[in-house]
Design a protein that fits this description.
The chain folds into 2 domains: 5-194, Rossmann fold, CATH 3.40.50; 211-469, UDP-N-acetylmuramoyl-L-alanine:D-glutamate ligase. Helix 2 (21-39) crosses helix 3 (54-68) and helix 3 (54-68) runs parallel beside helix 4. The protein is elongated. Helix 4 (84-92) links the parallel strand 2 (72-77) and strand 3 (97-98). It is of the alpha/beta class and 470 residues long. The strands form 2 sheets. Strands 10-9-8-11-12-13-14-15-16 form a 9-stranded mixed β-sheet, with helices on both faces. A 7-stranded parallel β-sheet has the order 3-2-1-4-5-6-7. Helices cover 41% and strands 14% of the residues. It has 18 helices and 16 strands.
Length: 470
């Protein structure tokens, strides 16, 4: 059972793979029409109640196909179609279209009603005129719901006898809420779910124009000391991904250098040359105002640093991303719930520490085993990234060979943290960030040639987001 947001991802990824959404709508309508004719053999008069979205477009296809089969079909349209494919379905319906005021009378003379009023994106509560239409549907003849019952999960939702849902069960679908459930394959290509695509960006929440500073994400960063470039690259990755604030906790030996990299960087120096157990309490004080912790870039592997990171991760209660040296000697108990972003060598080390053999089952099986062993989500970087929470897995094939240049992994870690700070799960954030970094790398190569730098990749990130979501 997948979250409703995943079906928006699926639609967009299918289109990117060349699928015609109009064809999918035809397949969906046919699946419902065929099921209705099989299950309601005596039904002669059907009322199809359509909304203005794509769910309503599916309903218009159902109505046309049933009418072509010789049944008496009435269509009630709540409002004019909002999408081009729904409008095409409307144009192909040659019968009369009734207004909402006629619904009760239409239902009184019908054998079956088809609920294609509201799809799966509804939030809040049912309002008029929709609440009245839903009430009328529940008081009328048996109902067949298209994809999901209107108002699913809300008080007063449609109570169908049968629901024909597409591709897979949606969140909240049970026999109690949907009646009998039939899952119909309407032609989504397997690649639309197996690989990331532009649809992943549908997971990002819209930016609130009225938001105050910090409401679009606060990423607390811990890293640096032996290295000074990685911290700033990770922070810039977070900023380019949309985070509002990235307070950085960096040993004082590196803090002034890191701060000079960009005026946007907020650097809090920690005494000494490396992150140590005595610094943990200072970082934990920032947790109350933070959304996510990002640990690792530039840390080094001093024994005291390893102890300090373990202590910090065990005590930090909010989401976190662990990258680079933060993964060195990482204990499973400290990693629970985190997003881990290892390259091939780090992945092998994590697997060995957990007793996972790098055998013949393949890289994907290894990544999944590591995720399960550490109770974490893993973004395993490589020519083809693998992202898994141990249950669900995606691959990412965007990118450019030059993304092997130093610093791009730090940018990616920052992007992951910012996406999580905006409300995504680790699995969702890793998918968005991996796809987006790959496309940004491809664009950087177009602009700068094959010698582009990690900073130039980071600069492309918001441009790609704007292009894809405009």
């Amino acid at each position: 059972m997948l979250p409703l947001a995943e079906f928006r991802v699926l639609d967009h990824n299918a289109v990117a793979l060349g699928v015609d959404l109009g064809e999918l709508m035809e397949n969906a309508g046919k699946a419902v029409a065929d099921t209705l004719r099989e299950r309601f053999l005596e039904a002669q008069r059907i009322v199809v109640v359509c909304g203005s979205g794509n769910n309503g477009g599916d309903g218009l296809v159902v109505a046309r196909l049933l009418a072509e089969a010789g049944l008496d079909v009435d269509v009630m349209l709540a409002d004019e179609p909002r999408s081009s494919i729904s409008q095409q379905a409307r144009d192909r319906w040659e019968g009369e279209v009734h207004p909402p005021q006629a619904l009760a009378k239409l239902l009184a003379g019908a054998d079956v009603a088809v609920d294609a009023l509201l799809g799966s994106g509804l939030r809040g509560e049912l309002r008029e005129p929709y609440s009245g239409m839903v009430t009328a549907l529940n008081a009328g003849p048996p109902v067949v719901a298209v994809d999901v019952p209107s108002g699913l999960g809300l008080p007063g939702a449609v109570q169908p006898q049968l629901t024909v849902t597409f591709h897979a069960l949606k969140e909240g679908m049970t026999e109690a809420t949907c009646g009998e459930i039939i899952i119909a394959d309407i032609g989504f290509p397997p690649e639309a779910e197996r690989y990331t695509g532009p649809g992943e960006l549908q997971l990002l929440p819209p930016v609130d124009a009225t938001a105050r500073k910090g409401q679009n994400g606060v990423v607390v960063f811990v890293g640096g000391g032996p290295y000074t470039g990685a911290p700033s690259l990770a922070a810039m990755g977070a900023y380019r991904m949309g985070a509002d604030l990235v307070p950085m906790y960096v040993p004082e030996s590196a803090a002034s250098v890191v701060a000079r990299h960009a005026p946007e960087l907020i650097v809090h120096p920690l005494p000494g040359n490396y992150f140590a157990p005595g610094h943990v309490a200072t970082v934990l004080e920032a947790e109350a105002k933070a959304d996510v912790l990002l640990v690792g870039p530039g840390l080094g592997r001093d024994p005291e640093t390893i102890v300090a990171i373990d202590k910090l991760l065990r005590r930090w209660q909010k989401p976190c991303v662990v990258d680079a040296d933060g993964l060195f000697r990482l204990e499973p108990e400290a990693a629970q719930g985190a997003l881990l972003t290892p390259h091939a060598g780090e992945l092998a080390r994590l697997a060995k520490a957990a007793g996972i053999a790098l055998g013949d089952d393949g890289r994907e099986a290894t990544v999944r085993a590591v995720a399960l062993a550490y109770s974490a989500t893993v973004l395993a970087k490589g020519p083809e990234d693998i992202i898994t929470d141990g249950t669900h897995t995606r691959r990412n094939r965007t990118g450019h060979p030059r993304l092997a240049v130093g610093g791009t992994g730090d940018v990616l870690a920052g992007m992951c943290a910012a996406a999580m700070a905006r409300g995504l799960t680790g699995f969702q954030a890793a998918r968005v960030a991996a796809w987006l970094l790959g496309i940004a790398g491809e664009r950087a190569a177009e602009v700068h040639g094959a010698g582009f730098l990690a900073t130039e990749v980071a600069a492309q990130v918001p441009l790609v987001v704007r292009e894809q979501l405009s």
